[in-house]
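TL;DR need structure tokens for one chain.
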Amino acid sequence: MKKFCLIGKKLEYSLSPYIYNYVFNYLKINAQYKLLSLNSRDEIPSVISSISRGEIDGINITNPYKVDVFNYLDSHDSVAYNIGSINCVSQYKDQAKGFNTDWRGFQRATEGIVSDCISIIGYGGAAKAVEYALLSEGVKNIRIYTREKINHPNNVVYKDIDQIFDQTKQKEGIIINATPHHFINEIDFDKILFLSSEKLIWIDLLYTKLSTDRRKYFDSNSYKNGIDMLIYQAFESLNIWFRKDVAKDVDFNSLKSYLERVNDVI
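>> reply
TL;DR here they are.
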């Protein structure tokens, strides 16, 4: 049996095992996917060694280890290097090789959503992958909002979410939340109404459910959560691990419906 896992912190609500085990069951692949919570980065080397020895066939990485894992790999591809973040590791010629599938997951999840004015909140591993995807599509007007100053030409420091609205002054475009914080469930209702305008789209990389009192204000034209990106990046990881297009035989909509039902109860 092939073995795969997700490493990170606070994994109890992750949908990743449901995605991969659904695919393994659907395609009758003898494999299993589990969660592996690490208390610190010091535990990463032992996991990577397990891949090199063939005890684990592949891993995904989530917060807060997407950058740390670089230091422990035998190799990585050029895209992961350019992004500066790794979320997928595969056994490759008796070595552990790192990849980034987040950028393709975001790209596929947002096909048809176009804007020349984009703001990204946060600048962790997921945000860097999103930025790479946007730049690869020729988007030039990207502003990065972080709580601390970073070495980035378009960085804009913010102390709270209100400053983003004050500084952008935008009435159209896309705001991408690439942080673990669910702002939509906390901001004032006047901003909810502002966000739900037809020309402004809020994209959460989170797949947490919106609170009931806010859900009614949003539709697919004004709000998109991260569940599509999660599925597509998983498909890309599968294709890397199995060295072929495994995911092409999986019905995306059926899998998404299944995950939405699971997400209601976990």
